[in-house]
Amino acid sequence: MKKIGIDARLFSQTGVGTYIKNLIYYLEKKEFKNELFHIYLMPGDYNRLTFKNKNIIKRKVDYRWHTLGEQMGFALELYKDNLDLMHFTYFSYPVLYWKKFIATVHDTTPLLFKTGKASTKNQFVYNIKHLFFRIILWCQVHRAVKIITPTETVKKQLEDIYGNKISDKTSSIYEGVNYQMLESKENKELSKKFNNFFIYVGNFYPHKNVENLIKAFRNVDKQFKLILLGPDDYFTSRILRCINTSKLNKNVILLKNPSLSDLKYFYKDAQALIHPSLSEGFGLPLIETAYFNTPIIASNITVFKELLGNNYLSFDPNNVDDISKKINNFIQKKPEFDYSNIMKKYSFSRMTDDTLKIYQAALERN
Question: Residues 315-332: pLDDT tens digits?
Answer without folding.
Answer: 999 999 999 999 999 999
